[in-house]
Amino acid sequence: MTSPSDVVRDAFAHHIWATLRLLDAVEALDPTVIEQGIDGTYGPIPQTITHLVDADDRYLQRLSSATLPPYEDHGTQPIPELQRRVRDHEQRWATALTQLGAGELDARIVDRDWPATPPAEGLLLLQAIHHGNDHRTQVCSTLGALGLEVPDLDGWTYWRSERLA
After folding, report:
1. Is the dihedral angle over the CA atoms 139, 145, 149, 151 positive or is it negative?
2. Helix or strand or coil: residue 165?
3. Do the strands 109-111 and 114-117 form a parallel or antiparallel pair, or are they unpaired?
4. Which of 18, 82, 101, 123 lies 20 to 30 Å from 55 when distance is taken between CA atoms?
5. Which residues pair with 109 in a beta bridge?
6. What pTM does this model have?
């Protein structure tokens, strides 16, 4: 029988898998092509994916610290560095989800720009999944608008390739 913990773990396993698969697809493209952006998205592909990975870092930090240092935009990062960071996030998410399952995750948000939110675990986990899906979709929309192949990142493809393989 599937537990609620299993469902949350599957959501984050898909989150990591989809981001890595997207990074693999983008890495194979001509760098001058992926620097283009389309209206209605965050920006050019490298900027969007870097933003997604940076945000995951901040969500993970917030799970253990109620306040964060001011945001610093470090620009875009090379695909291999983003892949490395996402693999690191995989371990960090697994640790956080283990703590959640054991009742040991106690995230709070105490920030002048956001109302005090104790407990904040649900908000942070929900936002990480939504944010990742939102920006992966924007990158896929950009690829499609540029006439490039769009990787299939949906749950069906994840389950078939990772859970049924």
Report:
1. positive
2. coil
3. antiparallel
4. 101
5. 117
6. 0.92
